[in-house]
Design goal:
Layout lengths: L15 H7 L7 E6 L2 E6 L4 H5 L9 H16 L1
Antiparallel strand pairs: 1-2
């Protein structure tokens, strides 16, 4: 745990060890939120859309599912 002092503008400087651990670099955008009685700072990815790529991936293919559904519909109609 580190202790820092606020500036006249209410700014704080994150110690280098913390910035390095979290990968925070100059110009990076961070999310700051109040949680209960403390503040949480979370670094945001430079490319938020790209960082989500693949997070919803599954082995199921949407196209295969639609083809299968179509074949079932054709069979029902005779």
């Amino acid at each position: 745990m580190a202790t820092v002092k606020t500036s006249g503008k209410g700014q704080v400087v994150l110690p280098k060890a913390i910035r390095d651990r979290l990968g925070i670099v100059p110009g990076m955008v961070v999310d700051v939120k109040v949680v209960g009685d403390h503040v949480e700072i979370h670094p945001l990815p430079a490319d938020p859309i790209g960082s989500l790529r693949g997070s919803l991936a599954s082995d199921a293919s949407l196209a295969d599912g639609l083809i299968q559904e179509h074949h079932l519909e054709v069979e029902r109609r005779g």
